[in-house]
Amino acid sequence: MSLPLAVLVSGSGSNLQAIIDRIEAGRIDARIKVVLSDKADAHGLVRAAKHGIPTRVLPFGEYPDRAAFDAALLAAVRESGARAVILAGFMRLLGKGFIAAYRDRILNIHPALLPSFPGLRAQEQAIGYGVAVSGATVHFVDEKMDNGPIVIQAAVPALPDDDAKSLGARILALEHRIYPQAVAWLAAGRLAIDGRKTRLAPSGAPLAHMDSPCLVNPPLEEGF
Ligand code: GAR
């Protein structure tokens, strides 16, 4: 039985698109029951609608406080029948109640090699620091920001003339490969949390070809 997902977005939704595409290609054994956004103008909602996926908007400002927003978000996810939650550029912290309800079943992607540069504008933070290597991290979500056990990381070079935009584009291209891969592993029941670590059950799947200088670990499988 394919894993029913809720995907939460706040913006462009390019990671959502990458996940939709891999589901449609038969690479991820999951179905997206709903795409939720805190922003009515999030392009991710348009992407979802194009694929016949139900969408809902919960504008943060329309709730009296954070707890009320969190409760509404949780209710919407539950109503959809989702059994796991994928944060794809969702720019709000989830409340404790939400995280408790979906413990160990929420994934997030962050555009840096955590624990470096958590929080907002990670690409800008990395450029400002002058790093030579940055990347992206998919991790399970816990109560602390950008903190839960890491599922997969991909590293890319930061080039001498990079700005946040050019570095961000290089990172985003890999996000579109590692996030669908992580969702596929989750959907296949191959991820187990072991303290700070995520253990990936092996499958013997052939590995993907990588044609640009980067390091991805665990390695991507063919099709991602
Ligand atoms: C992605 O780069 C994602 O890693 C980042 O927002 C972007 C969303 O792009 N998320 C965060 O910074 C979360 N802290 P998308 O809407 O095109 O997928």
UniProtKB/TrEMBL annotation:
<comment type="pathway">
    <text>Purine metabolism; IMP biosynthesis via de novo pathway; N(2)-formyl-N(1)-(5-phospho-D-ribosyl)glycinamide from N(1)-(5-phospho-D-ribosyl)glycinamide (10-formyl THF route): step 1/1.</text>
</comment>
<feature type="binding site">
    <location>
        <position position="108"/>
    </location>
    <ligand>
        <name>(6R)-10-formyltetrahydrofolate</name>
    </ligand>
</feature>
<feature type="binding site">
    <location>
        <position position="66"/>
    </location>
    <ligand>
        <name>(6R)-10-formyltetrahydrofolate</name>
    </ligand>
</feature>
<dbReference type="Pfam" id="PF00551">
    <property type="entry name" value="Formyl_trans_N"/>
</dbReference>
<feature type="active site" description="Proton donor">
    <location>
        <position position="110"/>
    </location>
</feature>
<feature type="binding site">
    <location>
        <begin position="13"/>
        <end position="15"/>
    </location>
    <ligand>
        <name>N(1)-(5-phospho-beta-D-ribosyl)glycinamide</name>
    </ligand>
</feature>
<dbReference type="InterPro" id="IPR004607">
    <property type="entry name" value="GART"/>
</dbReference>
<dbReference type="InterPro" id="IPR036477">
    <property type="entry name" value="Formyl_transf_N_sf"/>
</dbReference>
<dbReference type="GO" id="GO:0005829">
    <property type="term" value="C:cytosol"/>
</dbReference>
<keyword id="KW-0658">Purine biosynthesis</keyword>
<feature type="domain" description="Formyl transferase N-terminal">
    <location>
        <begin position="5"/>
        <end position="183"/>
    </location>
</feature>
<protein>
    <recommendedName>
        <fullName>Phosphoribosylglycinamide formyltransferase</fullName>
        <ecNumber>2.1.2.2</ecNumber>
    </recommendedName>
</protein>
<dbReference type="GO" id="GO:0006189">
    <property type="term" value="P:'de novo' IMP biosynthetic process"/>
</dbReference>
<feature type="binding site">
    <location>
        <begin position="91"/>
        <end position="94"/>
    </location>
    <ligand>
        <name>(6R)-10-formyltetrahydrofolate</name>
    </ligand>
</feature>
<comment type="function">
    <text>Catalyzes the transfer of a formyl group from 10-formyltetrahydrofolate to 5-phospho-ribosyl-glycinamide (GAR), producing 5-phospho-ribosyl-N-formylglycinamide (FGAR) and tetrahydrofolate.</text>
</comment>
<feature type="site" description="Raises pKa of active site His">
    <location>
        <position position="146"/>
    </location>
</feature>
<comment type="similarity">
    <text>Belongs to the GART family.</text>
</comment>
<dbReference type="InterPro" id="IPR002376">
    <property type="entry name" value="Formyl_transf_N"/>
</dbReference>
<dbReference type="GO" id="GO:0004644">
    <property type="term" value="F:phosphoribosylglycinamide formyltransferase activity"/>
</dbReference>
<keyword id="KW-0808">Transferase</keyword>
